[in-house]
Amino acid sequence: PAQGLGPRSQGAVQAPEGSPASSPPSPRGQVMLLGDSGVGKTCFLIQFKDGAFLSGTFIATVGIDFRNKVVTVDGVRVKLQIWDTAGQERFRSVTHAYYRDAQALLLLYDITNKSSFDNIRAWLTEIHEYAQRDVVIMLLGNKADVSSERVIRSEDGETLAREYGVPFMETSAKTGMNVELAFLAIAK
Ligand SMILES: Nc1nc2c(ncn2[C@@H]2O[C@H](COP(=O)(O)OP(=O)(O)OP(=O)(O)O)[C@@H](O)[C@H]2O)c(=O)[nH]1
């Protein structure tokens, strides 16, 4: 299995001897959100962090932004530092610089937008170029709540994910469907 961000990961901080069992230092994990502009990366992060959905005007991320959240995986607290990247092409050189520090990547497309799905191959090529070799990747088909405008079938996502040997799920940053599950899966 791919190496995760959990307690067994490389670089995980072990509790020093004699420290109270109730408050071991948390291992840390850096997670990056990637995918075309507008697929919902910022909304996905806000839903995970605050349990809220930002509807209305779409404000594209400029460069890169991050938020921290502590999750509990198999009883162990893992501090996630989550980097929200700009999907727009003009910020690519900025975001490339952060790839190598990431231990996990959530790669999103929008199930209502075919080009965001078609671009996943190009994203995976970039990932292989700039990220760590053992980086944990998960493919997410976001906006699963908008079934009326769906153009990418769930099976298409599954097939692509299988081709690259990465796990896959459909999500909704609006309803919160599978948002926490995706972060917990990569934090393992
Ligand atoms: N219905 C629905 N709309 C969503 C969902 N996620 C995001 N949106 C909408 O999609 C638009 C783009 O969302 P963002 O989160 O800003 O997209 P982004 O991927 O961060 O875009 P960049 O910052 O340019 O890379 C916004 O209008 C959101 O309200 C979702 O799961 N369902």
From TrEMBL:
One of its GO terms (biological process) is protein transport. Belongs to the small GTPase superfamily. Rab family. The gene is RAB37. It is found in: Endomembrane system. This is small monomeric GTPase. SUPFAM superfamilies: P-loop containing nucleoside triphosphate hydrolases. PANTHER family: PTHR47978. It is an enzyme of class 3 (hydrolase). One of its GO terms (molecular function) is GTP binding. Residues 1-31 are annotated as: Disordered. Its cofactor is Mg(2+). InterPro entries: P-loop_NTPase, Small_GTP-bd, Small_GTPase. It comes from Ursus americanus. It comes from the Eukaryota. Keywords: GTP-binding, Hydrolase, Lipoprotein, Magnesium, Metal-binding, Nucleotide-binding, Prenylation, Protein transport, Transport. Its EC number is 3.6.5.2.
